[in-house]
Batch of 4 targets.
Target 1
Amino acid sequence: MKHKTTFFRLALAGLLLTATMSAPARAQQPDLDGAWLGTLEAGAIKLRLVFRFTRQVDGTYGAALDSPDQGARGIPASSVEVKGDSVRVTLASLNAVYRGALQPGAARIAGTFTQHGMSFPLELARTDEVPDPGRPRPQDPKEPLPYHSEDVVYENPAAPGVRLAGTFTRPREPGRYPAALLITGSGPQNRNEEIMGHRPFLVLADHLTRRGIAVLRVDDRGVGESTGDFSTATSADFASDVRAGVAYLKSRDDVDPAAIGLIGHSEGGLIAPMVAAESDDVAWIVLMAGPGLPGDSILILQAELIARASGAPDTAIRWNQELQRTLFRILREEPSDSAARERVRAALRAFHERTRAALGQRPAEGTEAEAREAAIEQQVRQVVTPWYRYFIDYDPRPTLRRVKVPVLALNGSLDLQVPSDPNLAAIREALEQGGNRNVTIIEFPGLNHLFQTAKTGAPAEYAEIEETIAPAVLETIAEWVLGVSGRK
């Protein structure tokens, strides 16, 4: 799933505020004004970081951080301290601190980036060329498009206040076409499933439409032009939105009502079977990195694999698994959100204290303590939600056993978020147990969770890779859909 498991929490990427320093300005302060670029190396992961320093009217500094390789911009510094050639930037929202020293010539800062008790060397250099994560990628379609495209809006009658907006594409020639409804992964996603500078659903829709398949891609409820409250929704609610999308497709005279299918990526691959098992209007489903294991197992596997790719030691991985299981237990024992938040907060504080003690560090003080508390509060908000409660207890296998329509399940061998081997095996077993014999399972060697050709599969690579979706995956899906729709 697309959970925020990389170094920075991408939910903060839209914040554009800067914070001023807490220490008084000094006459000998160096000139830091402008952008400073460096590369953080953590195991196999390399992340470009940009610190943007801004001198305030009183001579103090504010700062904001960009992580272009994660699509994050404008993460505000909670404090900036400059004393002589010494620079300290605290990012409370990330539980991170950068400490550096301005080098002779005032063009470099040599320092250390520390987050969650782990430290990495980071050298910054002045730059006038800041990487832009929003640039077009090679596979993004270019105008003019050789097919019909229109913006559409429809209601979800089962969810008052939810009005879904999206884009429908089909070949230009008149006719009734097989149609695919695309279902996004976890987290608030727009109709292009935009992530780290890539637009996977834009690329997928373009390829399928060129091959003769109509496509509907939609902003999640409460995202983009869609209305509703995303924060209170669970996977079951998103399944309700998908059913509304299927009904909309059936209402169109340019769609073959007997050839409407669902293509779900990540959590969307969990939602597609939920809808297909209950609806006679769904003719086929494609699961792209869809889960076959229960949610709690997915999250534990995901955290372990990404931590290993980041170079984390076995002890840290084991402690993190213990923490995850503790949080799962609290959520199951405490139906009250307020009580759950208190217990989760206490568990996270104990975890941080244990980690610092094991590393021989004194208890956090001052700005470091503030950074820790900010990180804890953010984790509390992420964990104590209807979606998280639902997801950790949802087992997709009973639903998969009830799916009788043709299924194509795909994954990449380097997927660290929904690991390929155990999940594809669980999907196959559940479908076969239910008597479904029209099942195609494919693992693509060397592809990650986004189906990009990757080196390690770590999420930090996503933005670095120019490819949005491997062409072989696009063509495999198109060929399969045309085949099960009787169009080959």
Target 2
Amino acid sequence: MVTDKIAWSYLTTAAYCSYDNDESNMNKYGALYNWHAVNSGKLAPKCWHVPSDEEWDILERHLIANGYNWDRTTEGNKIAKSLAAKMHWERATVPGTRVPGTIGYDLTENNRSGFSALPGGHRGNEGGFHDIGSGGHWWSATENGASRAYYRLLVYVSFDNLGRHDYYKSCGHSVRLLRD
């Protein structure tokens, strides 16, 4: 476990941490891993793996096609509420942010898919911690060049979709495993 902010920012080997270096956050949300840990092949037990970017796409398409969008439609990516857990997410309380399809709007309607995504935040490539309670970031096993890799993102307010992004491999994100 790497706790030092500067040491984290220069890592080129596998590492993990708990959000804010607080063990209680790891117990609640799980560890944050850099992409080198994802690529190490040591995170998943036998018969499990970190999903590729394409496997995340398959999950997204399946949920959309089967009516898991917040409005029960089968077009467009509006699946954030169906993936997010019913607890630990911040609630949208500011006027203008109370959009029905966002995770933070009425948490009781979250998690129709049973995925139970938690907002564990992330550790930036500069070593700082961000977004616990308001965002969940999950690595894929797919690189995007020498220094970046793809991940998925859920945010409690403003967005109703499962976002796809790429960022520096030195960042710390959560990991979900997929059965082989």
Target 3
Amino acid sequence: MSLQVFLQAQLSGVEEFLTSFEAGVNDISELAGRCAWLGLISEVLPLALLAEFSFSRMLVGSSGGEQFLLVLPDESIPAANDFLARAAKEIAELSGGALRLIWASTENLGPWPVVRKRLDEALHRQAAAPLNQIGAAGAISAADAVFEPLAAAGAAGASEYFRAFGEALPASKLVSWSPDQPARLQFTSGKHSWILAEHAAAESNAIAFPRRIAQNEAGSAPASLPELGALAEGTPAWGILRGDVDHFAQRLQRAATVEEHILLSILFKEFFAGELSVLCTMPDFWRKVSILYRGGDDFAVFGAWDALLALARELERVFGRFAEQHLKSLAGLEGKSVSMALAVAAGDDSSPVAVFEQAGAQLLAAKAAETGTFCLFGRTLEWKRVDDAEELKTGLARLVRDYGYPPDCIHDIASVYREAYSTQATRRGKAIRVEKPWRTFMRLSRVIPPSRNKELANLRSSVITNLVGKSTANLKLRPSSRVGLEWARLATGS
């Protein structure tokens, strides 16, 4: 009787792969192609391996999100290692050395936490090994994949491949794999092919890979970045929103059984695949937002800046309900909150790759400061404080639109805020007390002068309260106020 063996594989170097290439201004096709390929390769490779060995698809434990877990008979491990070594070599070449496929296997002996620890230790050794020593021999069986040095020409044609991949994605019905090019997925026929399904399908030959791509006004092609930006309220600008579940890896490590590990992996992957797809069909988003990437615990979308902001808030709300329903019985806070960051393109000459990278850096900074936060316009806020920023934005927008205040008043208020807000407080991200409150209050009163109109006076009072609090003798400037000011500036086009 064959002994069961767990084989775990991971892709490392993802951020470098998605950001270390030159992209044209307002041209997102290559980035979209890279993201789509990345989302599919960790789904296709395990299925291709099983198909090559005539094994059942049921042996896939989890897949997607740059990783997969298989259960294999022990006698098939050498052949599996050879299969993955060939795939790893072409992945490295195709990505110019940015991506590395690492893997390890171990017998299904002992409790799952012990098995998981053995796999983690082996993967850590693989990740630390030089590129030409992936799969070095150890206590856990793995492959000896020796790579030739990657020359500059190693990734020749890669940009064209990923660009074509991204352009063909919207209309593609299937994805194919061939052994002679184990990393170059195609949307045409190959040795093995799988249907790209919109939902988790019961069909044995389908991969759940729903796509939501905003179309232009004529509905004839995907909307360009300028077209998406033109649909935004106020300032015509597009942006990229990235999100990531907080401490999801730690949540998986706390799984007591392999069944719990697999269930959690599938739950989170299906949440992002399903909820993002549904939200992007809603009236507020279907023409303004396109999905760029969905992983096992993270995502990226692009579109009109105001639609992305609204999408982020709605997705956080839905995720809170999801976590409460599915993780309520699990101890600890790992995996129960999500952090996001929105980067808005600075102008018509903005590169999608640069905006994507900016959103990623802001997301990392937000997660490092505090979990369950939203980095918006360069400021990190708790989710509940976004409501405060929106209230200020709404008040300022009404002053401009309904009462004829000049849009420049928002810039004047922002200058008052910047002068009073210390560098130390900015780093802490907390409200601070103003040393000379009367001076700040007087300057605000000059920018937003009093009025005898009762409704306008109430609105003015609400705006000032949102900025500095209710007490004129104890003014405090809050981080959410800076976000609200920038939000209002964009919303009014000032």
Target 4
Amino acid sequence: MNLNQRIDSFAQLGQFFKQFTTSKIEKKEDSEINTLFFDAFKMQIERAQESNGWFTKDNVLFAIESLAKSLTKENLEKWTSNYSFLESNPKNIAIIMAGNIPLVGFHDLLSVLISGNNAVVKLSSNDQFFLPLIVKYLEYNNLYFKGKITFTKGKLENFDAVIATGSNNTARYFEHYFGKYPNIIRNNRNSVAILTGNETKEELELLGEDIFKYFGLGCRSVSKLFVPKDYNFDLLFNALYKYKDIINYKKYENNYDYNKAVYIMSLFNVLENGFVMLKEDANFASPIATLFFEYYPNNKALFEKLKLNDENIQCIVSNLGTKDFIKFGESQNPNLWDYADGVDTLAFLLTDIHN
């Protein structure tokens, strides 16, 4: 099976995903394969929260909808056009997946398969059901994928390279056990936003998507703000008010109440509006329902600080128009070529593991 045929298969998967959106779930085709997998996906979406309380129906649908937008033939061709593909000598790539947000490991699986390699997948216990369903769809739709993907719950064996995603602690474990193999090992990263005080209300409302989507659990979720001295936080709180209903979700509310109690007992000075707290803090990773913030004196000093902390930052949200910055509201909609931790997964799979 050549690259163009693999692209077609994933574009067909993208078309299948288009039936599941945050606005509605609607069956658009009566073919045998669509009927079989549409019902299976719909049932799993409805039941996702039973196995992971953070996987609300809305968040799962948002993740699937985002994949549908990415998996077009045009996007897949644009993504792969910058690489040279080998159509022989496939390698076995072990993928150890995270489970912090729905389908967070899909891009690694896509990269392995689109490159013509084989995947040996160890799923996160927090996201066990969607990827096997997707693999069954791919196998049913195209026999080429039969035997290309193996799921394992035990010890990883018979692999040539590793892609592993986890916390800072598990990353050290991964380095110890997989350091002798070609590898990509990812650890904790967080995203930040730069505010100037000149943002419109609409821009700040869009920032709310970057903050609250997936309850702030994603590495692309904004967990820290950089603000100028004397910043008027009322502007931000007023714009974020449209997301107030997030506090009605019990798991989020419990985290809000717990962290608020900790801050009060510790005599920390915290700004809060009933559903999110703002705390001045130099760290990048903030607890659920909390945003850290830090004042910056000028853009030059801020950019130097961000460069020094590059290994802690997944993406930067701002309206400053700098090339590598992301517009407000866009952090949770990465393109296929927006690689986690800035490491080119496809180049690794096509070049590095063969050297």
